[in-house]
Amino acid sequence: MRQSAIYLDHNASAPLLPEARAAMVAALDLSGNPSSVHGHGRALRNLIETARGQVAKLSGAERGQVVFTGSATEAITQAIVGGAKAFKVDGIVVSAGEHMAVLKAAEATGLPVAKAGLDEDGLIRIEEIGAALAKADAAEQRLLVCVHLVNNETGVMQPVERIEVLVGPTPHHLFVDAVQGFGKLGLKFASRAPDMMAISAHKIGGPAGVGALLVKGHADQARLIPGGGQEQGRRGGTESAPAIAGFGAAAEAFASRFYEANVSALIRVAEDGMRAVAPDLVVFGEKADRIGNASNFAVPGLKNSVAMMGLDLLGLSVSSGSACSSGKVGPSHVLAAMGVKPELAECAMRLSLGWSSTTDDVEAFLKGFGEVVGRHRSRHGRAA
Ligand code: PLP
């Protein structure tokens, strides 16, 4: 099916890069199992190892530190559930702004989970992580700290370097969900403190259904699926060579494509344009450092369910930033943690741009936004 709508939802999933598509199509023509020692198997193995090098390069990891998984959610679960068991930790610390993949994995460990809050700008309250570590130290306990690099809803960049300083020199462990920063920020996994990081292909123009766990040698016992010993026993199951090849090709092409799209300038144009139409516009996390490709905003009184339907009818795909898998718009736990009142959170929408975004997309969005806001204001007896 051809999709003609304008796509403004890269944080949910970026469109497939042509480079990734070409690599996948070429791989689909190959038969065999990458674990087989014959020529067919070796050809697929070569694709996987090339991709491992490409993903390692973009994440600043050593090749041997990259474990391919079926998604970032799987990598996160392996890091948290597998890591908690391997490190024999006594508890987990998360932030209240984590993706559900992290929150649910923490819950699945069955261990006590401490939650550090977010401040009103969407930044993790580091002092609360410090307090949890101090309490654990006093009780001679060991914790697994799980934080994200960039928030998927607000685009706020978290002070992970400061968290590394807190956790790095201690016996506690650190996992970073780097999904929304991978390819956009320079990751230097090998030389930095986290024991493990999770990344995903489909946020950088690769296919959905493949991700990776970056893992240091000492943390390498965090295994969930031993299976047939693939990925050096770190993730069983026959690898999807086409998906992994697509991931690798996306990792190679993404950073320059993303940079060329100049998305932070486009987001500024979008936010200025929205403010010109709706001076009461609220941009969540505006005072914090944001990654620049996303804007989470609300027009007070204009519910996101209504606005998104109006924009969708005009062929503009934006998100509420917190859609659950059923497709329904649920209340955002991230905005709630930032202290945003429920009636304003109900109006929150997310615009997220990426490698394929253009000035025309933003102009079309602003035109649609103007229509939707104008219609809302005339219905509610206020001038647009
Ligand atoms: N973590 C963050 C911050 C995300 O934004 C997402 C995807 O929305 C995930 C984890 C899960 O990634 P995947 O879809 O590859 O499982």
Protein described:
The chain has helices at residues 18-28, 39-59, 72-86, 100-108, 126-138, 160-167, 241-261, 263-277, 304-313, 333-337, 342-345, 359-379, and strands spanning 6-7, 66-69, 91-95, 113-116, 143-148, 173-177, 196-200, 211-215, 282-283, 294-298, 316-317, 348-352. The radius of gyration is 21 Å and the shape is globular. Helix 1 (18-28) runs antiparallel to helix 7 (241-261), helix 3 (72-86) runs parallel beside helix 4 and helix 5 (126-138) packs parallel to helix 6 (160-167). The chain contains twelve helices and twelve strands. Strand 3 (91-95), helix 4 and strand 4 (113-116) form a beta-alpha-beta unit. Residues 71-73, 99, 101, 148, 152, 177, 179-180, 200, 211 line the site of pyridoxal-5'-phosphate. Pyridoxal-5'-phosphate (PLP) is lined by residues 71-73, 99, 101, 148, 152, 177, 179-180, 200, 211.
Structural descriptors:
Aspartate Aminotransferase, domain 2, single chain, binds pyridoxal-5'-phosphate, 7-stranded mixed beta sheet, 2 domains, globular, 384 residues, alpha/beta, Aspartate Aminotransferase, domain 1, 3-stranded antiparallel beta sheet
In short:
The chain is an alpha/beta fold and 384 residues long. It has helices spanning 18-28, 39-59, 72-86, 100-108, 126-138, 160-167, 241-261, 263-277, 304-313, 333-337, 342-345, 359-379; strands at residues 6-7, 66-69, 91-95, 113-116, 143-148, 173-177, 196-200, 211-215, 282-283, 294-298, 316-317, 348-352. The protein has two domains: 6-15 and 259-379, Aspartate Aminotransferase, domain 1 (Alpha-Beta Complex), CATH 3.90.1150; 18-254, Aspartate Aminotransferase, domain 2.
